[in-house]
Amino acid sequence: MKNKNGTYIIGVDHGYGNIKTANCCFPTGVVVSDMEPTFKQDLLVYEGKYYQIGIGHKEYSAEKVMDEDYYILTLAAIARELAREQITSAAVFIAAGLPLSWVGSQKQAFKEYLLRNAEVDFTFRNQDYHIKIVGAEVFPQGFAAIAERLSDFSGTHLLCDIGNGTMNLLRIANKKPDPRNMFTEKYGVQQCVIAMQEALMREHKAQVDEETIHSFLRHGTAGITAEIEHTMTAAAKDYVQEIFRKLREHGYDPRLMKLYVVGGGGCLIKNFNQYDRNRIFINDDICATAKGYEYMAAMNFRKAAK
Fold first, then answer.
1. C-alpha distances in angstroms, 208 versus 30, 197, 232, 297?
2. What's the rounded Cα separation, in Å, for the pair 251 and 267?
3. Left if phi > 0, otherwise alpha if psi is -120 to 50, otherwise beta: which for 86?
């Protein structure tokens, strides 16, 4: 969160698996009820409805404005950032993003979605908030994670942003992004989770929940037996090999370019693949893209003030 003359710029990375801000990460899940639920942890109350935040995750959708969920999750993200500074009333500028090849066609609709209310009153974690939404901007996902350090990208790099729902690729040549080489694939971490669940059911008749699988993917272990772990490891390695196959399809040649990986899926390459650390860099800061949104928005504020 950045304070620009009394306006708080808050970056929100609207993932399919997790919502990220500069300082927090929570599952992209919403359960709505007309009645107050029994369990009130991370409860958001808005316009007479009760939203339990962080339960499950959003299903993949080619557009993020199809329902109210991402708006509610944005309010929760704003509240979590403001709570860190003990602020309950503020003017907020939302810095968000979309997958690289979606920005052009969906940017305006997503911006209008985030700006649907100029003022919002809601309660989160038993704290009342009054927020003025003074503006919003939508930036290219993935690229935002490297925007502040673009000057370091001499030569040719392939940026690979692996999220839960999509994988975004962007070639960067001599510190400049190349829009002619920009791709979005529906091949995020959730595809690995599905393949892993199918393998476990096929080989062991075992139904493993997604939380256990995600823990295994992040840490390489999850308190499971060796035979289950062997099957999960094999599925994860197959997924990583498919990632590199798709990269090659889009022109990746490790002899000619370096690979820079951002997003939660980077941990799979780190945990389930051998790679040349001189040619492949993995940024494991899950909040890097949200921080990048804030940086890019702050730069725009600075330019407007000149």
1. 22, 7, 10, 41
2. 23
3. left
CA-nearest of 251, 137, 191, 175 to 17 is: 191
Do 181 and 263 belong to one domain?
yes
pTM of the model: 0.92
> What is the CATH number for 124?
3.30.420.40
Q: Are residues 99 and 20 in the same domain?
A: yes
Digit-coded pLDDT (tens) for 249-279: 999 999 999 999 999 899 999 999 999 999 9
The answer to whether 148 and 300 are in contact (CB under 8 A) is no
CA separation for the pair 10, 28 (Å, rounded) = 17
Q: Which token pair is 162?
A: 């692996």
Q: Is 8 in the same domain as 131?
A: yes
Q: How many CB atoms lie within 10 A of CB 80?
A: 21
* Domain extent at residue 103: 2-140
